């Protein structure tokens, strides 16, 4: 197994490598990658946006995460807000750090890389909570998020042009670490 190092990533400089990871991990075609490239570059212009990458000793990017402080005027927020309002959770859109994308190449999944990426980036957040959306189903990603303290805030959420429904999830920061279980009755899953 190759050793993988997780650290800050200049996503603008390595956007094509990152999108190649996302294309493999998420099954995207060239047209979708071209659209997402423009979205990523636009997001990186938002104050507070940042990225972390996972790379081998040879410098091969095998995973990445990026996120930014939430803004209710952003497209994602405008789509999820009605769903969150229905469940009484739309306050989660305020003072939250959004995990916009998190992807790891399939050959490197199951090694804790996704966990390291998301905990490293959220540890840099000044916001008291994190939110994200994930495909609504039983998956390793959703299991990871639950183990980190994320809970379902709204589901199913339907994004325009997405064929599958999503779940919006939220967690107080810092995220839970391995071996730390919330105490019974703890607020928001934290001690």
Please state the CA-atom Rg, rounded to the nearest Å. Answer: 16 Å
Largest sheet: 7 strands, mixed
Residue ranges: pLDDT <50 for 5 or more in a row? 181-191
Query: What is the N-to-C succession of helices and strands?
Result: EHHEEHEHEHEE
User: What integer is the average pLDDT?
Assistant: 92
The counted number of beta strands is: 7
Per DSSP, what share of the residues sits in E-state strands of 2 or more residues?
25-35%
Given the structure, what is the number of helices?
5
What is the multimeric organization of the chains shown? single chain
What structural class do the secondary elements suggest? alpha+beta
The shape is globular
**For the largest beta sheet, what order do the strands appear in spatially?**
1-2-3-4-5-7-6
Share of residues in helices: 25-40%
Distance between the termini: 36 Å
Describe this structure in words.
It is a single chain. By secondary structure, this protein is of the alpha+beta class. The chain is built from five helices and seven strands. The chain has helices at 15-26, 30-43, 75-86, 113-123, 140-147; strands spanning 4-8, 50-56, 61-69, 96-104, 129-135, 151-157, 166-172. Strands 1-2-3-4-5-7-6 form a seven-stranded mixed sheet. The protein is globular, with a radius of gyration of 16 Å. Mean pLDDT is 92; it is low at 181-191.
Give me a quick take on this structure.
The protein has 191 residues and is of the alpha+beta class.
Name the descriptors.
7-stranded mixed sheet; 191 residues; disordered C terminus; alpha+beta
Give a topology summary.
Blueprint: E1 4-8, H1 15-26, H2 30-43, E2 50-56, E3 61-69, H3 75-86, E4 96-104, H4 113-123, E5 129-135, H5 140-147, E6 151-157, E7 166-172
Parallel strand pairs: 4-5
Antiparallel strand pairs: 1-2, 2-3, 3-4, 5-7, 6-7
Helix pairs in contact: 1-2
């Amino acid at each position: 197994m190759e050793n993988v190092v997780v650290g800050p990533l200049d996503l603008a400089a390595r956007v094509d490598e990152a999108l190649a990871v996302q294309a493999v991990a998420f099954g995207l075609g060239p047209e979708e990658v071209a659209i997402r490239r423009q979205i990523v570059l636009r997001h990186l212009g938002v104050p507070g946006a940042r990225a972390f990458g996972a790379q081998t000793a040879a410098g091969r990017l095998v995973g990445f995460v990026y996120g930014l402080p939430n803004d209710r005027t952003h497209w994602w927020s405008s789509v999820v807000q009605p769903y969150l309002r229905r469940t009484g959770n739309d306050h989660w859109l305020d003072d939250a750090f959004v995990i916009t994308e998190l992807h790891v190449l399939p050959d490197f999944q199951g090694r804790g890389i996704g966990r390291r990426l998301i905990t490293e980036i959220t540890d840099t957040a000044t916001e008291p909570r994190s939110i994200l959306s994930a495909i609504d189903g039983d998956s390793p990603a959703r299991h990871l998020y639950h183990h980190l303290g994320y809970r379902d805030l709204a589901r199913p959420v339907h994004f325009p042009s997405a064929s599958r429904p999503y779940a919006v999830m939220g967690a107080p920061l810092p995220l839970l670490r391995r071996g730390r279980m919330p105490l019974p009755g703890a607020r928001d899953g934290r001690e």
